[in-house]
């Protein structure tokens, strides 16, 4: 397969896309009648009105969202980037799920597209969890982008070659002069560095959750987004969801009285945690830049225990279950209760390990009172832990307190009752029951939208800031990253001064608030 350097055109030798469009417009200015085939048919979006985008990080999530972006008429994907050229060892949510999605996106005539990308089999992630393996890396992504645009031109062979592939995002940002925006879907420890580099060049940024890997970086990216006046947001829909709006209305109406506590639990992790660093050194796979993958993280020998997907459980690369899932639910809770960062945080857990998150934890966060509510105590549970089962539950709600991948939930406790819902607030029910607060009917999946992406794209084109923008999500990120620090040191109370960005009662723990990046990858 060609290396990324073979796929990169020398942009300095060619006029930019916008210059070409401007020159053509100037030459054609005297013509009042333009042929229909030039303007395009119904739904046609002129190239000058499209957001030109590069996807950086092409694992499962990177590919899935890139497909969604490809399908939008106001987006033109012009580049992809990943330090892995190609492999088929990425975790999937079903047998050949990504390949099936790609063929569906491409449409008729592409039913057998990418046969060489088919899954090689399954993997056992933990004793309880197995997964299908699938495609990933910059080459499959480039092939899909070019096949998609080729198919839109009516070419069954996918005759289109306008997508450049890079192994280093810095080279991409230097050479893609027509780039408007980037989508960042790398492991957590790379989010801030790539987002900051892109925003310094005034590119809009859509970033996978969590927004950053450290609290210091969350402040930096929020400040940079404001300074550069770019659309910068994360792919979290909770601040805009129907469930969040409904729960806000019910709680503001006094459905359960004054809210005192929130309990939130996840069935994660689905990846190994509570393990030691491997002693073996594996050979680095062909076409994979291990040093680039490590990036800002401390240097270490390569081992398959770190990637792909399983990096989530390692302190240096991921944020465990809390960082993976708390950014969803906390974004909703912060919106509903109008929270500010917590003042104290502490955790209890199964056995701690030096480099990985524990297998199971509880995190307790205390939020200060505001002018319209009292103090709030919030409790996070993962690894199979749950809060105590409340009395009087309906039969259909018993499952929330039982083991099982889908039995994740959230519970708001007030002085007059409690509200129980799915993990992100979906299908809420109020106890004691009241006809005034009726759970809405569940919407079919195909009727649901993706407001986070919709709002971000609108903002890229001059619309209002997305609800999940970097400035709004910085306090949310701060809260669950404090929880991640607490998970490293179970039993130690964290006293937090958000104005000073400091843990005031432990110099040791405060060192994790804004740790330095590895020299050459410093942000």
Beta percentage is 15-25%
Structural class: alpha/beta
Poorly predicted parts: 1-40
Our count of helices gives: 15
State the helical fraction. 25-40%
Tell me about the largest β-sheet: 9 strands, mixed
List the strand order in the largest sheet.
Answer: 16-15-14-10-13-12-11-17-18
The geometry reads as globular
Quote the average pLDDT: 90
User: How many strands?
Assistant: 18
Radius of gyration: 24 Å
Head-to-tail CA distance between termini: 32 Å
Topology summary:
Layout: H1 4-7, H2 17-27, H3 36-39, E1 51-56, H4 60-70, E2 75-81, E3 87-91, H5 97-106, E4 122-124, E5 130-136, H6 138-152, E6 164-166, H7 169-175, E7 181-184, H8 191-200, E8 204-207, H9 215-228, E9 232-234, H10 242-252, E10 259-265, H11 290-294, H12 320-337, E11 344-349, E12 361-367, E13 376-381, E14 409-414, E15 418-422, E16 429-431, H13 451-460, H14 470-488, E17 494-497, E18 502-503, H15 507-510
Parallel strand pairs: 1-2, 1-7, 2-6, 7-8, 8-9, 10-13
Antiparallel strand pairs: 3-5, 4-5, 10-14, 11-12, 11-17, 12-13, 14-15, 15-16, 17-18
